[in-house]
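Consider this:
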Amino acid sequence: MIRLQGTDGVRRPVRLSTDPSLNGLSPVESFLEHGVITEQFVELYCFCRVRSLIESGSIEEGEAFVIGWDPRDPGGTYTRAAVQGLLKGGVDVMALGVAPTPLAPLYSRYIGAAGAIVITASHNPPAYNGVKIFTRHGLKLLPSDDMELSGEVMKTGYDEVKNATMKGSVYDRSGEALDIFERYSLDPSNSWMDDSAELSNVTLIVDAANGALSVAAGRILEKAGFGDVIVTSDKLDGSVNLLCGVAELEGLDEVTPDMIVKGGRLSGNEAMARLFEVGREKRDSIIKDGHMVCAAVFDGDGDRFYRVDYDPFRDIAVIMTGDETSVLQALFHANSERPKLFINTVESDLSASVKAEQAGYRHEITEVGDKWILLKTAVEILKHKGSANVYTLIKTQAESPTVSADTIEKILRENNVRFTASSKKSVALIGAEESGHNITAGYLKTAQGEEVVVFHGNGLKSLLNTFAAGLRREDSRLSAQDRFSRRVRPYPRGFKKTWYAYYVNKSLWQRGSDVWMETIGAIKNEVEKLDDVIKTEEKIFPGELDMLYISVETGEFSASVYIRNSGTENKTGVNVRGPLSRSDMLMEMGEAVSRALTPLIKDMSDPMACAEMELIEKTAIEGGAPADPLCGLSRPEYEQLLKETGVKQGYLTGASPGSLLSDRGKWYLDNIKRVKKVL
């Protein structure tokens, strides 16, 4: 059976069902054959989710269901379709309007709704949209749930949805929900702020990613006590993540001045330009008076956060990803006598978990995706708060190869478990993805007056927690430069790099396939070059069987190599993690494995792969990337091609016209010539 979803829900470029290119195809056919989401698909998808819940007895017809969205659909075509699908499915709709993703499950818990849906494509470009789904207690759907929903979508004809009667009603809850979000965010139990937090000496540049936090972030952060809050990229015109947001900074450790000038990698990034401008203005105050000039960078739906600090000593900006912020948050609770658990994914720096373990945390690693961290968080909370019987049932389900969020909800419902906050001191939980999803327990008083534990990726909460933790670690005995270094690098960082291949045939990357076996051979060849190898072991993650994860233990260090298809984009990544002291060797390993895999997995039937080939050839011939789009691409499509070919894959020296071929690009050009000879 086909699974329609990726890492987090369903996500694709959007296209109206009336577009001539779709030629009357059904919503599912448009999705499968053209790789696009239509408004009909969104309506069908939401309808099927609600109907399957009602028909299974998981919820009652007429229950409340929460929906919010990011502002990438200013005309409301796809959000209206989602609301219609929910209404036709048989629930009342509590509409939050433009709202950050974490507010949807938060408000759902507040009113006791049956679940929540967010219409968003998260960090993806403006041309994308998608659907994220939360269960009653805030879990995300897991692969087995995805498969069940995919089956319902594929067997349900759109005519059934089109002709269905709208059974429920729509209620505007935008104002109330934003008020609750503000109260929740500023509650000291959730923000970790106390009277000693010196936020007044922080100038904060907010990059709202032209997304869901454009509405609320500035007001909440001003009330939190930051000295000066400057909000950038807060347009609601649909330009979500365009030259802004977390995705712009992925793969970078620092931002240098040359990156923000015209033609630089971050040219047009308003937040980074303002960070340098204000940082330079306040340089003396930063050095002499302990002032801080920082940026808070979110993604389009507000569930991810990076912190960026201006360094007055080197005139650069230092990026703190989810690894650094989570370690800071872990150190905040290091002296607690509570049981402590640090959860991160395979994407994270191996050194982050080492630091957490040194601080007294038990460590667990998961597949990619905050849904797995949410699952482990729920299990751990029940271990310390729930009955032993319920905990055993949930733990058994969580460890099953076919673990289901809906099945977990069934167990919770049958045992009347509501995650009540009987004690806020039971366990210290820090969950994190390198990409900026940080998950820590929060506390919410519901409309019924009951205090409950909530947990979800929340960029704003992560920001507040990171500053609370960082300010507590400030040591006035240190020099200004040492204080800065300690703040932005709370642990000795390891080596962490990803090599992407875009425009690939993902179906070729499957456990046991020819491509899989050839790539294992390439990894073994590289491992054999190492000295004193004690153990090489493959770790299998049941939730993502088609991820190859190999750990390497030598007498002196530990490292890992893992390869997986992206769940949200048409790319496959080779990822290497290990100690920074071995970066040269690890770079060679990653480069070799990437060069072995890329030619095997490129999909030359993909128009973008063909355009990439022509771009590289023309760049070589003309001495620079062409200024005008090629292969019939639109200007935005060509800009995407330049970015993915130049920056993401490293085949060009930049992402702008005139960029030259890099060494990797010259290698790929030779590969193109070999491919053409074969063809």
